[in-house]
Amino acid sequence: MTAITTAGTPGVNRFTRSQLLRTARLFATDPDLEDLVDGTATERTWRRLDATDHLEIWVISWPVGASTGWHDHLQSEGAFLTVKGELAEQTWSGGTVHDRHLWEGEGRSFGPHHVHHVANLGDRPALSVHVYSPALRGMTRYALLDGKLAQTGIERAGEQW
């Protein structure tokens, strides 16, 4: 994989969004992936698979009903792929909520400041792979109040997760 330098961000190497999604697909093929997280937990569990300053890869286990809440990934671009089960993603754009479902084998990539809420609305646990570039420094948290998205705080990497 070839990293590119993003214009306007000197010295920060980023992978293209298509490279991030291909990386998620590659890691999703690991036959031992499910063994790396607790699939019987009642809340989401996650494990960082690898990280450099320029790329970070996670596997997340989603019990039925688990969700992330509204958030973005600060300056990081990303991609995620549903390995098992199904995930629902809501995105916020132009003052409107947009819904999409990602079934097994389906994924998507996104740019920095992409605000979304991801949940397992299916009837069985789900598993996903998430890839970010540069590595996550934190997440902005939001709440949907009276039809508007309001920032509620910032989680810094290493402090809350």
TrEMBL record:
InterPro entries: CDO_1 (IPR010300), RmlC-like_jellyroll (IPR014710), RmlC_Cupin_sf (IPR011051)
SUPFAM superfamilies per UniProt: RmlC-like cupins
Keywords: Iron, Isomerase, Metal-binding
GO MF, one annotated term: oxidoreductase activity, acting on single donors with incorporation of molecular oxygen, incorporation of two atoms of oxygen
Residues noted as binding Fe cation in the record, renumbered to the chain: H71, H73, H116
Any Pfam family: CDO_I
Keyword Metal-binding: yes
Gene3D superfamilies: Jelly Rolls
CDD domains assigned: cupin_CDO
Family recorded in the similarity comment: Belongs to the cysteine dioxygenase family.
Protein's name according to its UniProt entry: Mannose-6-phosphate isomerase, cupin superfamily
Annotated source species: Pedococcus dokdonensis
